[in-house]
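ingest -> validate -> predict -> emit
validate: passed (alphabet ok, no gaps, 88 aa)
predict: started
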Amino acid sequence: MLYILVKRDKDSYYLLVDPAERVDSICRILGRLIGNDPQDIQLLLNGQPIDADLGIFDLDLDEYSTVTYKLRTIVSHDAEMKPVYEYI
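emit:
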């Protein structure tokens, strides 16, 4: 098992994850904690987006790595009044 510290602004969470799992399992756990749909969470490792299909073991994590997240948010509507999303 592996502890990962995930931060966003003032919020931080230590998550206990199995290194054999995929990154999307972090999104599932985090989604339950913050009350958001896991599909609306984008994880970043040292400021770079992480592919949800990667294995946690495949990430180059060390004690200096920072894992943060962004949430998918409606920023506007297009000409057909469909929402336009961005990760903020």
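The mean pLDDT is 90.
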